[in-house]
Amino acid sequence: MRFIDEYRDAKAAHKIAGSIRRTATRSWKIMEICGGQTHSIIKFGLDELLPDCITLIHGPGCPVCVTPLEAIEQAVIIASKQNVILCSFGDMLRVPGKKKDLLSVKAEGGDVRIVYSPMDALELAKKHPDKKVVFFAVGFETTAPANAMVVYQADKQGVDNFSVLVSHVLVPPAMEAVLSSKQNQVQGFLAAGHVCTVMGYKQYESIAEKYRVPIVVTGFEPVDILRGIQLCVEQLEKGSFLVQNEYSRVVTRDGNLNAQKIVDQVFCVVPRKWRGIGEIPNSGLGLQKAYERFDAEIIFKLENINVQEPPECIAGLILQGIKKPHECSEFDKRCKPEHPLGAPMVSSEGACNAYFRYRKYSLGANS
Amino acid sequence: MSENKEFNPSCPISISDYPNVLLAHGSGGTLMNQLIDGVFKIAFKNKELHKSHDAAVLNIDSSKIAITTDSYVVDPLFFPGGDIGSMAIYGTINDLAMSGAMPIALSVGFILEEGLEMEKLIKVVNSMQVAANKAGVDIVTGDTKVVDRGKGDGIFINTTGIGLIKHNMSIEPSSVVDGDAIIISGDIGRHGIAIMAVREGLEFSTFIESDSAPLNGLVSKLIDSKIEIHCMRDLTRGGLASALVEIAKTSNSQITIDENNIPVREDVRGACEILGFDPMYVANEGRFIAFVKRDDVNKALNIFHSDELGKDAKCIGYVSADKPGSVTMRSCIGTMRVVDMLSGEQLPRIC
What we know:
The structure holds two protein chains of two kinds. By secondary structure, chain A is of the alpha/beta class. Chain A contains 16 helices and eleven strands. Chain A has a domain at 65-170 and 255-299: Rossmann fold (3-Layer(aba) Sandwich), CATH 3.40.50. In chain A, strand 5 (132-139), helix 8 and strand 6 (162-169) form a beta-alpha-beta unit. Chain A is globular and about 65 Å long. By secondary structure, chain B is an alpha+beta fold. Chain B contains nine helices and 14 strands. Chain B has helices at residues 2-7, 30-43, 84-97, 118-135, 190-200, 216-224, 239-251, 266-275, 297-305, and strands spanning 56-60, 63-72, 78-79, 82-83, 102-113, 138-147, 155-165, 181-184, 229-234, 254-258, 288-292, 314-320, 327-330, 336-339. A seven-stranded mixed sheet of chain B has the order 9-11-8-12-10-13-14, sandwiched between helices. A five-stranded mixed sheet of chain B has the order 1-2-7-5-6, with helices on one face. In chain B, strands 3-4 form a two-stranded antiparallel ribbon. Chain B is globular, with a radius of gyration of 21 Å. Chain A binds chain B through residues 1, 4, 8-10, 13-14, 36, 42-46, 48-49, 63-64, 89-94, 103-104, 106-108, 114, 116, 138-140, 142-143, 194, 222, 336-339, 348-349, 356-362, and chain B through 17-24, 29-31, 34, 200, 266, 269-270, 273, 275-276, 323, 326, 328, 331-338, 340, 342-344, 347-351.
């Protein structure tokens, strides 16, 4: 298949891995930001092809994993109400809230529906004018344009029974939070290809400069990721700290300007709590004042929900790359995909889930 | 204490962590297996059930009779490549075939929803008869119930099948041995994607139809040609991955497969990429895997290839004794990874 097979080519992958082995003269720690990249790395065993001196640190770029417990709890409360339809992307349904997940709410009679596009939720609202239809708008810059568009359309079409529960997050502030942490070990980044498809990579140039770290915009296929690592290692060895674009078949420096325009129109930058990490300033998107009447948090009066995260889940350390999933004492014990303690075990982009699915036996966790 | 216990018998059915049944309990993954092991197998304790095979094999006088049952709930009722009626025939026929049984007869139970268009019912019933003719079996008894509007999804069908086993092999997971070759009968993932495309209104540039088909003819050819078959499993919910994991666990053996040998059609691969699905876990209705004696693999492949339903068959891997209960896969770039069962349904990813 075009655009897939050539990027999953064994010969090409091994050639790049060989080049990385020849280039690397000392140890380097590189963080892949996006959970999609983490998943590919573990699924294809890319880290096995790397020399021992290269360590990959799995970053916080899994939208499901970083959605705070409060937001899940808000969704659970909304979905449990009468005459409400809660629409969500599939991944969110199994994330445990304070006491239960959205799938359990559904089993108890709540109207929870999986949608493939936020526009499907708007269509549902039009079809059920007697019900309040709420879309759980989560994700990074990648999903923000479509989620902004649905609010814009709801406003334009006057669909007053529609609202959004927003828990959007932004990548650059999270990178800065990682880099300025006292525990930081990250020396180079693979930036998330699809976030950059929307936003471009201009905004990473100041981060690379300020923290003197190379940042390589990278795709999601094995050859993409290995090539991203290769470029990053070459820069690290030379001591340079530029933003490079490995994913040029999709990403431009400016990104998708139309998408950015609709995001700016509907959303504004707000502080956001990240699950397991805490609040990061300017790291989220919330609705602009002009669209406040579509804010489910206000409609359902849920602004003051506070929930403690389970202390045994080390999601925060995992999401900051300080610990690997199998280093958690509950991994494959009390925490499994069917009974997760935290979101990284649920999401298909979560590091714990990837280790569980593709590494369980080789880690010896199940023996 | 022990006296007290006698007067307070506890329910043998363990209470799972979930107080309610979730949809994921029916998806062929880990949760469903927990439900079967933790509730049904505990309540219905018997040797035959514990073999965890698609059909139970009963010795009646000097005959070996296979019996199986399956219920069919599918939305939409009609989909490219089939409908709930043909699926209800082929699914049960295939479960019989997986123990090497020749189907003798089927029963059918209908649960119909008040208000169902008669025209739809007739279309489904006619399709069942056409499918039964194709599989060479009669539907000899049945039952009908009607439930209130809103309490069913149009039509639910249960079919039970009995079949006669004429060979002397024990075709079941416990017969799998070190060295067995694993053959897959054709490309995977088409049924799941065909259903998904109709249900969600997704359009692809090519037409993806379900692989729904009766497998008893092809299985008969293998048996008649004296291929030493140790186990067979049709790939339904949970797909190829779940079937392999189930067999590895039940037979306490290690299975190693090669990703490059697993046939997936281009358009199915494309659809899976878009939705974030792994074709290894997508449902099939006309595909199976056969564990055969290693020496017989080429002869078996020739038989597969001579049949329309097996023309794309491939040997995908082998059984070993190294890590009992595990499935590993050599990826397309040559690295090794674990293949595990999903906990529930595959959920479309966010981005």
